[in-house]
Model the fold of this input.
Amino acid sequence: MIKFSSFLLIVTILTGCDFKNKTSTHMNNNKDQDKSLEPDDTIPKVTGIGGIFFFSDDPEKTKNWYSENLGLETNQWGSSFEFRNANRPEEINYLQWSPFKNGSNYFEPSKKEFMINYRVQNIEALVRNLKAKGVTVLDEIETFDYGKFVHIMDSEGNKIELWEPVDKVFTAMNLKTTK
Done:
């Protein structure tokens, strides 16, 4: 019986060692798979919402109402919402909320009373892809210290603003933000 117990103990130890090796190998394979799941910042695509823009009879009054009643931190452009990048949590990103004066031509040629700004990556390649698909691109890419912009029209006649942001510029401005 002692020999059998010793045999079981040795088999258990050896099996445990083999299990550790298999687990270790499996874990290393998962690390390789995890690398393949890391975001590719070169793929031309939308990564989120960058802004919500809408018409208002009195943009200043609208900003004040939202500040007083809903607690938005407002500035000359509206309100900047601060959030963390899901893939790089140490990075602060921004979404702009802005009322525009009714009749502003900024949304033209759209007849809608709003415009959405989408955050994108690799805007140049995205614009090439959109043009190749026959999407109406309204202007050339403009570059500012806080990012690159271009406007397109969707299939419903909505003007869309595409923005490849440089968020660190807004962080450096140290503006009050809505969190």
In short: The beta strands are 45-56, 79-84, 92-101, 114-121, 142-144, 147-153, 159-165. The two ends are 69 Å apart (CA to CA). The first helix runs from residue 2 to 36.
